[in-house]
Design the sequence.
C-alpha cells in the first residue's frame, strides 16, 4: 500500500519549455549549491547570514529556491562562502556550484 509519497516525478515536456519552470530550476540549483557549501563549511544559516550581510530568513529563502538572485547577492554569497561561484546556463538547464578558494 502506498504511503502517499512520490519517489520520482515525471515532468511533461511542455512544462520544461515554460520560462517559469526554467527559472524555478535555476533558483533551486542556486539554493542547493548554497546549502551544500554552507554545510561543507559547518556553518549554520545565522552565521552565513551574518557573513553575507543578510538575514536568516534570506538564507532560508535562498536555500529553498525562493529567490531570483542579483549579481550583488551572488557576490555576497560567494564571498561569505569563501568560494568562487561557477554557473553554467543552457537553454533549459542551470548548474550552480561554489568552488572553494585555494588554501
Sequence:
Amino acid at each position: 500500500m502506498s504511503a502517499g509519497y512520490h519517489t520520482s516525478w515525471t515532468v511533461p515536456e511542455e512544462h520544461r519549455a515554460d520560462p517559469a519552470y526554467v527559472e524555478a530550476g535555476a533558483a533551486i540549483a542556486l539554493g542547493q549549491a548554497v546549502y551544500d557549501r554552507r554545510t561543507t563549511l559547518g556553518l549554520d544559516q545565522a552565521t552565513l547570514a551574518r557573513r553575507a550581510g543578510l538575514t536568516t530568513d534570506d538564507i532560508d529563502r535562498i536555500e529553498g529556491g525562493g529567490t531570483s538572485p542579483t549579481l550583488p547577492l551572488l557576490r555576497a554569497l560567494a564571498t561569505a562562502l569563501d568560494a568562487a561561484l561557477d554557473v553554467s546556463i543552457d537553454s533549459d538547464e542551470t548548474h550552480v556550484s561554489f568552488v572553494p578558494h585555494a588554501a
Observations:
- The mean pLDDT is 87.
- The longest strand covers residues 83-89.
- Helices lie at 13-16, 19-41, 45-52, 56-63, 71-80.
